[in-house]
Amino acid sequence: MALKATIFKAALQIADMDRNYYGEHALTIARHPSETDERMMVRVLAFALHAAERLSFGKGLSDEDEPDVWEKDLTGSIMTWIDVGLPDDKRIRKAAGRSGQVYVYSYGAAHGTRLWWEQVEGKLDKTRNVTVMRLPTVQTRELAALADRNMRLTCTIQDGQIWLANDNASVEVQAETLKAVESRAR
């Protein structure tokens, strides 16, 4: 018998002063049986960083043709594709061809993320719509401690600084940019 996803609920308030975005989201998060609290909370953080009206969680681990988080326009075209973890370069390049913007939030042991980045960096040279961020292990583990079946979270973003908090704790996340979207000359 297959294990079922565990359902988490989150009331997420976002104050993103960098994008001038302020909103409340009632999230239902299906945590795959093989997914950790750390990975799930990185998905929640990615959602908060890109919050928009049509942003939603994809099937992620359950379906390799869907990202962890995505935004589609009214025609069904993928505007934003977001993966968390250490996806292989083929998946990232495929996502870059299918969507307007791709974001990867890598996390895990520092040695592992460095090794992963060394393997994929050169293979992403020609992708112009991909941004890759690295999240420090200590901070993603602190995010995992915020996980609860019924969460009330606030996310504040200002001047590139990110805080995710519940009623008992606050985690400052300092994302490191490994690859940024190339700006187009005008």
CATH topology: Restriction endonuclease-like alpha-beta roll fold
Placed side by side, the strands forming the largest sheet appear as 3-4-5-6-7-11
Total strand segments: 11
Compute the average pLDDT: 93
- Tell me the domain tally: 1
Order of helices and strands: EEHEEEHEHEHEEEE
The gyration radius over C-alpha positions equals: 16 Å
Q: Which structural class do you get from the secondary structure elements?
A: alpha/beta
How would you describe this structure to a colleague?
Helices cover 23% and strands 38% of the residues. By secondary structure, it is α/β, with parallel strands linked by helices. It has one domain (36-178): Restriction endonuclease-like alpha-beta roll fold, CATH 3.10.640.10. The strands form 2 sheets. The protein has a 6-stranded mixed beta sheet with strand order 3-4-5-6-7-11. The protein has a 5-stranded mixed beta sheet with strand order 2-1-8-9-10. Strand 6, helix 3 (110-120) and strand 7 (130-134) form a beta-alpha-beta unit. The longest helix is centred in the N-terminal third of the chain and has 13 residues, at 37-49. The chain is globular, with a radius of gyration of 16 Å. It starts with 5 loop residues before the first strand and ends in a 7-residue tail after the last strand.
In short:
The protein has 186 residues and is an alpha/beta fold.
Task: Write out key terms for the chains shown.
186 residues; globular; Restriction endonuclease-like alpha-beta roll fold; 11 strands; alpha/beta
